[in-house]
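Human: Cast an eye over this sequence-structure pair and say how the chain folds.
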Amino acid sequence: MILLADSGSTKTDWSVLENGKLIQKISTKGTNPFFQSQEEIRNEIKEALIPQLPLSEVDELYFYGAGCAFPDKIAIVKEAIGQFIRVKQSFEVNSDMLAAARGLCGHKAGIACIIGTGSNSCLYDGQNIVENVSPLGFILGDEGSGAVLGKILIGDILKNQLSIELQKKFFIKFPMTRAEIINRVYCKPFPNRFLASLSIFYEENIADPAIRAMLVDNFKSFLKRNVMQYEGYDCYPINFIGSIAYFFREQLDEACKAMGLKLGEVERSPMDGLIKYHTEQK
């Protein structure tokens, strides 16, 4: 029995595999040890996962998560899960970036990217990440991500950089005062999730040239500041995982072409690819 988890800042998808076949899917809230304590992660496992899980032990467990790129953060997640699930053989906690790479590229070398709530990228050798430009989070980096798109949208709305029509549409869609917006960003937990939740405004107003340009410009920034630092970036197709990449594939393709790059696979989730990766190597 294998338990796979793909965890972003917003949600976690769990898959239970038996004899190489998917037998159950479970969804819980996102887990990120940069923003959550071990106690918070432990409670989510206990209250949301365990009641739905038909077993208390597995042969192998592979958890891929946002924020799981450093030993101390990996230890937090591993200990929280280990309190409730016994793993008899292999227990790995890896980054969501490695999930994207394995899910998109399988056992072949390539460039894999994430553009969802946050953004990230890597050069991958068919098994492990060999080079990674640090994403730096939505304050310093995360170009193209839902959080950064939300941040830019709010800034342009509040500083009157978009048309009066778009400003009116924004406040109809999101009936908040300016003070409430500032409070959500600076004082409430998970500001990245709040900012990313605003990305639906782009989807609903994609016909507006200013909105389309904001998307394409942000994707071009992501490619320039991240992807184009990898050796062979102009040879490999550029593959993507994540809701923003998936829903705005047309604008992402436009950005790739403008930068002289070839768009590769675009998937909303890496889970199908991860299932294939972990069952094929047996």
About this structure: Residues 60 and 90 are 5 Å apart (CA to CA). The two ends are 12 Å apart (CA to CA). Residues 2-104+270-280 form a domain with the Nucleotidyltransferase; domain 5 fold (CATH 3.30.420.40).
